[in-house]
Amino acid sequence: MNNENNPGPSDEKKDLEQAPFTEKKLAEAPSFREDETPVDPPIEENINPVQEITPAEEEEPLSLTVDEAIRVEWPTIEADPKLESLQKQISNLESQLAELHQDFKSKIKYDTHKEKIIDNLHSELQAHKNGLLEKLLGPVFLDVIEVIDDTRRLLKDIKSRGEDGNAEKLWKILDSIPEDLEDMLDKHGVEVARSLTDQFDPSLQKVVRVVSTDQEQLDKTVQERLKNGYRWQEKLLRREMVNVWQYRKEG
Fold it and tell me: Does domain 190-251 have CATH number 2.30.22.10?
């Protein structure tokens, strides 16, 4: 038991070898003189010291919500002037093409509508030409024929009676014919155009003959009305035929 508790020479040797600073190592270490100071090895300036990062200082992973991502100010990229100019030219061309397309559609609609109107007008004109005489002159002819029939009927009736005074009755019949014809014209818009005064009016009257007079107050007045004037739709068809007085001093 004494051997186990008391270390032997071999155990002491092992302890000396394992000790970090033993007398042996101290003896082997270089000795310094009292007047010498130990010199530290040179430190490289370019070597950055390693900083330990504690768990609290470690960066957390980037986690942004949608709203935060929208509010992030992203770096702006300067626009290229040439690219902007090209984009403007393309935009202008697209606008012009759209306008041309719209104009083209409008032109097609207009041409189609115009052709339809022309076709309708042509059809109406052709129908008007075909029935012109019947529509315009037919009623006039029928009225004239009616007056002729009435006149012949009256003349035949007078002749069949053989009464005295036939000449006077015939004159009355013939005198009524112009009035009947004027009534017929009036139904179709033709009215008598006469001056309301005896003073000669060159815009409504035409001189057939000039009659001399020594009465100065009769100068340029109507001496006799020969034929009536007629107007149709404010247009003068014929001026009134008249004789006019003209003053001439005697001697």
Answer: yes
Length of the chain: 251
CB distance 229 to 192 below 8 Å = yes
Question: One-letter amino acid identity for 56?
Answer: A
The full DSSP string for 205-221 is EEEEEEEEES-GGGTTB
Distance CA 243, CA 200 (A): 9
**Residue closest to 208 by CA, chosen among 159, 244, 232:** 244
- Residue the block writes with tokens 């310094």: 32
Please work out, in degrees rounded to the nearest 5, the angle formed at the alpha carbon of residue 157 by the alpha carbons of 151 and 163: 125
Q: What is the pTM of this model?
A: 0.42
Rounded CA-CA distance 148/140 in Å is 12
pLDDT tens-digit readout, 69-122:
556 565 565 667 788 888 888 888 888 888 888 888 888 877 887 888 888 888
Expressed in angstroms, the distance from the first to the final Cα of the chain is: 206
State how far Cα 203 lies from the chain centre.
49
Tokens 């001399």 sit on residue: 212
Instruction: Please give the single-letter amino acid code of residue 218.
Output: L
pLDDT per position as a tens digit, 163-209? 566 677 777 777 788 888 888 888 888 888 989 999 999 999 999 99
